[in-house]
Amino acid sequence: MAFASGWASGINAYATVLILGLIGRFAHEPSVPTGFERTDVLIIMGVLAALDLTADKIPYLDSVWDTLSTVIRPAAGALIGALIGGTQGGMPAITLAAVGGAAALASHLTKTGIRMAINTSPEPASNIVASLGNDVSVASITSLAVLHPAIAAVCAGTMLVLGVLVVSLVFSRVVRGFQSVRRFLTPAARGA
Fold first, then answer.
1. I want to staple 56 with a disulfide (CB 3.0 to 4.6 A). Which of 76, 91, 131, 148 is the partner?
2. Which of 128, 122, 134, 4 is nearest to 69 (CA)?
C-alpha cells in the first residue's frame, strides 16, 4: 500500500490524499490513516487537487507546476508511507516512509520527463490526453492500494518501469522540452 500510494502521490499528491481520505471516511477502511478523513483535510486536498488537475493540462504550466512539486510529491509519499506504518513510529514507519518517498520521487521524475518531452509537441491535445491518463492512473492505483495492495503495487511498479523506458527512449525530447520551458520562463531568452 505504501509503494502504490507513494507512486500515485508522485503524480498528484493532493488527489492521492483526497482519494485515500474519501475511501477511509465513506468505506470505513481501517488501513487509511484517520487524519486523511478529517473534513478540513478533505476540503484542502480537494481544492489543491483541482488546482493540480487544472495546471497539469496546460502546456508549459504543467512543467512549471511539476518543478514546484518536486519537493512536495516525494514528501507526501513519505508521509503517507509513515502514516501507513503506524503512529508508534519505529522501524516499520521509517521503512514505509522510505518506500513511499522513493516511489513518489521515481514516479514524479518519470512523469516530469515525459511531460517535458510532450511539451515539444506543437499541439495541446497530447498534453491533455497524457494528463487525463495520469488522473485515471492516480484514482485507480490509489483505490486499488486500499482494496488490493499487492495488485496495486504490481501495477504501480509496472507503470514505473514502463515510464522509465519511455523517458530513456525520448530523452533528447526531454532535454528539448526543458530548454523550451526555460525559454518560456526567461523573457530575455524569448527575444534572442
1. 131
2. 134
Q: Rg of the Cα trace of the chain?
A: 17
The helix/strand/coil state of 88 is coil
Which residue in 130, 8, 14 sits closest to 72, CA to CA?
A: 14
φ/ψ (deg, to 5) at 71: -90, -40
- How many angstroms separate the Cα of 27 from the Cα of each of 20, 32, 146, 186? 10, 10, 10, 48
Q: Does the pTM of the predicted model rise above 0.85?
A: yes
Work out the mean pLDDT of the chain and round it to a whole number. 91
Q: Label residue 39 exposed, middle or buried (CB < 10 Å: 0-12, 13-18, 19+).
A: exposed
Could you read off the pLDDT of 115-147 as tens digits, one per residue?
888 887 777 788 899 999 999 999 999 999 999
Separation in Å, CA 150 to CA 14, 119, 121, 122, 146: 23, 34, 36, 39, 10
Q: What torsion, rounded to 10 degrees, do the Cα atoms 93, 95, 101, 106 define?
A: -160
CA distance 121 to 105: 25
* pLDDT at 3 exceeding the cut of 70: yes
Show the cell assigned to 178.
526543458
User: Which amino acid is located at 100 in the chain?
Assistant: G
Q: How far apart are CA 33 and CA 76, in angstroms?
A: 13
